[in-house]
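tool_call predict_complex ligand=2-acetamido-2-deoxy-beta-D-glucopyranose
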Amino acid sequence: MYLAWLVFVILLPDWSAGAEPKIVYKATNIECIGNPKRAVNLSCIIKAINWNKAVAQMDCDLVVPLRNFSIQLEVFKKGYSNQYHPFLVNVTFNACDILAKRSFLPYGTIMWRTVKEFSNVNHPCPIENHLYARNLSIDENMLPVLPLGIYMFSLRITDVSPKGLSEYVGVIKFYFQAMEMIRIKKNIN
Ligand SMILES: *[C@@H]1O[C@H](CO)[C@@H](O)[C@H](O)[C@H]1NC(C)=O
Ligand SMILES: *[C@@H]1O[C@H](CO)[C@@H](O)[C@H](O)[C@H]1NC(C)=O
Ligand SMILES: *[C@@H]1O[C@H](CO)[C@@H](O)[C@H](O)[C@H]1NC(C)=O
Ligand SMILES: *[C@@H]1O[C@H](CO)[C@@H](O)[C@H](O)[C@H]1NC(C)=O
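tool_result ok
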C-alpha cells in the first residue's frame, strides 16, 4: 500500500517539474482537548525551527488504557472568509488494527509511520500511561501535493469497550500551512 502511494506521489506532475518551487507543510498551531475521564495532563505546543519548519511536542497521561480505539480523521481547508471548510478527507479507522498491522488503510498507515517515528506509541494496543510525541512534523514526501493554503487535520479519538460502548477520549487539531519553501539567499562575506 505504501508503494502504491509512493508511485502515486512520484507520478504527480508537480514533482517532475524541477523548476517549480518546493511546497512545504509548516505546522502553525496545535490544540489538544481531552475527556478528563480518559486523558489528562495534556500539553501540546508548536515550536518554530526555521522559516519552513515547525515541530510539535505533545504529552498526555491516559487515565484508562486505550484497548480498541478508532480515529476519525477530517481534513479542513481555510477559505477566504477565514472559515474552515471540509476538504476531501473524512475517514474513520481502527487504530489498534493499524498498530497491530492488521489493517493497511492508506491514511492510517501514513499516520502510523509518522507517529511511530516521533512518539512512544510504537507498539500494539493497549496504549497506556504517559504518551508523548517529540519533534513531530509532516513529511511532505508522504502526502500528495496540496494546493497552497491553511489546513486543519482533526483527529477525534474514540475507544470502544468490549461491551461495545464507545467513549470519546479526545481531539487533536493540527493546523499547518502548505506554502512555497522560503529560500534564504546567503550573501554573507
Ligand atoms: C498528572 O500529573 C500529575 C502531576 O505530575 C501526576 O501526579 C498525575 O499522576 C498525572 N495523572 C495521571 C493520570 O498520570
Ligand atoms: C464526516 O462524517 C461524519 C459521519 O459520516 C459526519 O458526522 C461529519 O459531519 C463529517 N464531517 C465533515 C467535515 O463533513
Ligand atoms: C528535538 O529537536 C531538538 C532540536 O533540534 C534536539 O535538540 C532534540 O534532541 C530533539 N529531541 C528528540 C527526542 O529527538
Ligand atoms: C473494537 O471496535 C470496533 C469498532 O471500531 C468494534 O466493531 C469491535 O467489536 C471492537 N472490538 C472489541 C474486541 O471490543
